[in-house]
Every structure is written in C-alpha cells, then in structure tokens.
Amino acid sequence: MALRAGGAAELLALLLPLLLASLAAGSGNGTSAKPTEAPSGNANPGLHATESTKIEYGECTVTCGIGIREVLLTSGCPAAETKCIIGVEECEGPVDCGWGIPISKGPECMKMLCIYIPPENRFKYIWKKLIQNQTARTLPNDTSIVEVCRGNQSVTYQCETRRKKGSVIASVKYTVHAKTEIQAEEPKRIQTVHSRDKTDAILIFCLVIGIIVAVGVFSAMIFMILHWGVVKSFWKSKSGQDNQEKLTNKISLHNLE
Q1: What is the pTM of this model?
Q2: For 76, which of 34, 51, 57, 196 could close a Cys bridge (C-beta 3.0–4.6 Å)?
Q3: Which residues pair with 90 in a beta bridge?
Q4: Which element (helix H / strand E) includes 91?
C-alpha cells in the first residue's frame, strides 16, 4: 500500500507542471481574445478582398429636395481603376426649392409638379393654396401633379413632398396669374416679339453682308496666290508706266522753262 501511495505521489508531481502549463495557455488563447472585426463596406465579387475598401460619395443630382448620388470605391477596384461605382443612394438638399414654372396646357390651364424621385408612391404630397392676406388652404388633391385653370385673381400654389413618416423633404411654389394680368401683358408681349424679330432681321442682314465681303476677300487672296506671276508682272508694268509718265512730265516741264 505504501508503495502504491508513493507511486501515485510521484505521478501527481509529474502531471502538475503539465496541468499548470495547459491552464496558462488556455487563459492566453481563450475567451479573452477579441473576435475578428469584419471589414467595412459591402462585399463585391469583382473587388479585391485583400485590400482595405475606401468609400467616397459623388455629388447629389439636385441642389434642393431629394435626389441620388453615386457610391464610389477608391481602392480595390478591378482592372487597376482608380475609382469604380458600387451603387447609388438617396441624397437630400435644402427643403425649400423656391419657385417653379407651371407647364402650360393651353391659354387658360396648366399643370404643376411636386418634387420626387421614382417610385412616387413612396411619398405623400400636400398641396396648399396661398392667397394674399388669407390663411393657406389645403387642397384635397394628394397626387404629385395638379392641373388648374386661371381665375379672376392670381393664386400661389405650394406642394410639400413628405415621407410616409411625415418629415418634409421638398417644397416648391407656383404662381398662376389671373386672366386680366395675361390680357394686359399680351400687347407688351406682342410688341416685344415684333421688336425681337426686327432685331433678328438686322443681325441676319449684317451677317450675310459680312459673309459676302469675307468670301470676296478670300477669293482675291486665293487668286493672287495661284497667279502670283501674272500679278507681279502686272504690278511691274504698272509701276513702269507710272515712272515713264513721271519722266515725260519732267521733260515737258523742263522744256517749258
């Protein structure tokens, strides 16, 4: 029995250092190690996964309201490209888009559009009728396009584009002038058109004259270049005649004296 107890003690003495070493290794590589973080950015089969991705955003397609912009990758692009497009996303500018221009559908009626990007059913559209010195009135129309006709007084319309949650992303106003204003401005418009037509006719006449003169000058230059020998001999004969006439006049004057 004593022999067995001594053997067990010796075996425990040999296994104790190994047990302590395994526990130390487990504490160094165990639960205290941080998990590997996934690289930022979207995985793309055409991109080099070994390179760190850097995202850059293009300019928004609008200066107000809602638009789209490109999402660019500046490293890890295929074919050694410096930048490549990996997608598009929505972008927003200032809410107030100022004044729009109604689209005419004839002398009396026109249509007005709200600001949105497809699909348009993602948004809510609130139309308001703004009259001076009166409270704004919300119209029952909730579509992105409204058609109106002129009345006896000028009216301002405003469209607010909202997300389904209620936040306003764009606002635009339109002015529909009254019939009387259009009738009063019609003679001025006709006079302006006539004046513009007269100015255009004068400019066209001057342009035609300038073209004719330029063609004549270029034709003369080309003729002189192609027939330089004839021109040179002509000028020589002309200068010789002039010198002969001068000499004759001098002799005549000398004889008279």
Answers
A1: 0.50
A2: 51
A3: 68
A4: strand 84-92
